[in-house]
Amino acid sequence: MKLTDIKGTVTLANGVEMPYFGLGVFKSRGGSEVINSVTWALEAGYRHIDTATIYENEEGVGEAISKAHLNRDEVFITSKVWNSDQGFDNTLRAFDESLKRLSTDYLDLYLVHWPVKGKYKETWKALEKLYKDGRVRAIGVSNFLAHHLDDLIQDCDVKPMVNQFEFHPRLVQPDLVKKCLELNIRPEAWSPLMQGGVFDIKELQKMANKYSKNVAQVVLRWNLQKGIITIPKSANKNRIESNAHIFDFEISEDDMKAIDKLDKNRRIGADPDNFDF
């Protein structure tokens, strides 16, 4: 993945250009908080916004994008179908509702949010229909482990183009990243900053000092240099702007390996093999 600037993209399996850096809005409250966050991000040059039905802020995301002085095709919008909406017909209905809330007539990327046992294959068939009908430019999954991908792919017509999963210095998941790349599925990190937990890792602070950057900037740059699309969440204007200042330095190969070694296989979110929501 060649890194250029905040508007740089990576090419998905179907040729769609997806910005490799974006804003996540998990836990951003609907209304003014998310509207401000998205507005600040777009003003700072972000061109990729990641939301989901369960975040309950799609309307605010759509309002902020609509008010921005940008053409619709300049902003890459991702949303996700929630677990209670999975299944073929329910997914199609949920997609329509997301479009209405986002005030758009298509999505750039639509994801299956979690691998709900007994449902995600049916849900995927709905995503394939939406894709074939031209209502979404790319489709993918979220929180799928290697065995989920194998199970899905053996019965699908269109392979996922993206797999978004928990990824940060304490959960590097090298085998899953390798699996995705081998399948030409682009890996994407959620919670790349461990909901602020990265700031408590002393080795990262030392490295940040070395590069005259802050910890968040080092971690986000590490993500991108590993070929991982990343979508840090913030509702703070200064942090949103600061997180984007990662294209004027490069982490050395030795330091990349040093960050890799911080891995403890420690999740801050749910285990995709053991969740009950």
Structure description:
With 277 residues, the chain is α/β, with parallel strands linked by helices. It has one domain: NADP-dependent oxidoreductase domain (TIM Barrel). Helices cover 37% and strands 15% of the residues. It has helices at 32-43, 58-67, 88-102, 120-132, 146-153, 174-182, 202-211, 215-225, 237-243, 253-260; strands at residues 9-11, 17-19, 23-24, 48-50, 76-81, 107-112, 136-142, 162-166, 186-190, 229-230. α7 (202-211) crosses α8. The radius of gyration is 18 Å and the shape is globular. The mean pLDDT is 97.
Compact description:
The protein has 277 residues and is α/β, with parallel strands linked by helices. It is built from ten helices and ten strands.
Radius of gyration: 18 Å
Number of helices: 10
What would CATH call the class?
A: Alpha Beta
User: Which percent band covers the strand fraction?
Assistant: 15-25%
**Strand count:** 10
Pfam families: Aldo_ket_red
Family: Belongs to the aldo/keto reductase family.
Protein name: Aldo/keto reductase
InterPro entries: AKR (IPR020471), AKR5G (IPR044500), Aldo/ket_reductase_CS (IPR018170), NAD(P)_OxRdtase_dom_sf (IPR036812), NADP_OxRdtase_dom (IPR023210)
